[in-house]
Amino acid sequence: MTEPVLFAVENHVAVITLNRPERRNAINQALLIHLYDCLEKVTRDDAIRAAVITGNGKSFCSGLDLDIVQTENLFNPRGDGSDLPDLFAACSKPVIGAINGHAITGGFEIALNCDFLIASEAASFADTHARVGIHPGWGMTQLLQQAVGRRRARQMSFTCRFINAQTAYEWGLVNEVVPPERLMPRAMEIAADICEGNPELLKVVRDLINFRDTAPLADAFAHERAGFAAFVKQHLRS
Question: Which residues, including other chains, have CB under 8 Å from residue 19's CB and lie 6 or more apart?
């Protein structure tokens, strides 16, 4: 039986590949269980310094598999209460989304939960929650407006229309757009650069950036300065 998610580690970088190409990597219960397990492997394994998530075939992920929404448990797939955004939030390593094709609705939410995105020229993005009649739950209404601004997020979510990779770049949704054959090499180059950093300070910097999501600028600035003061005090003492 083919695994719905592939997992490999190369030079301290985990590569997580959504692997239902015959269904455009649509999300079923088995895919979610394996994806959750892979994210936890990245979190637990100290030898892993960064991760890349991509899709096999022409799509990154086409969202929930509508053929099994009523028959499979997509909202508590492992039966332990784990949820996708919580697993991303608990992961202490940077996660790069390498978007190889369509990223639609739930698949788009997987991408939005990554730290940043590198897109193939063949990539495209759409939020179709309002069209298919499914309530968003993995961060679409919050993370999309954070990435592209509220008015553009409204346009995408209200119209359910696709944007292409170049528009995604111009709107700040993706960091880079590369030819399809350069997508994974480029993502791995960036991951290698990440791996050269001090892992403890990398986690500190990532946490400080993410802290701004839950605090106003003045509080986030004070939080960074307090950490710096503690760092200096410890460094001088040693």
Answer: 2, 3, 4, 5, 6, 25, 56
In this prediction, residue 238 carries a pLDDT of 57
Cα separation, 1 vs 34, whole angstroms: 14
Contacts of 11 (CB under 8 A, 6+ apart): 192, 195
Q: What is the pLDDT of residues 73-124, one digit of tens each?
A: 999 999 999 999 999 999 989 999 999 999 999 999 999 999 999 999 999 9
pLDDT at res. 44: 97
CB atoms under 10 Å from CB of 6, counted, come to: 15
> Domain end: 195, 211, 226, which one?
195
CB atoms within 10 A of CB 225: 10
What pLDDT, on the 0 to 100 scale, is given for residue 236? 77
185 and 209 fall within a common domain: no
Listed as ranges, residues in the chain with pLDDT below 70 are: 238
Q: Cα torsion at 13, 19, 21, 25 (round to 10°)? A: -90
Distance CA 83, CA 72 (A): 15
8-state DSSP, 58: S
**Do 190 and 231 reside in the same domain of the chain?**
no
Same domain? For 43 and 149 the reply is: yes
Closest to 96 in 3D by CA, of 34, 52, 31, 148:
52
Rounded CA separation 48/10 (Å): 9
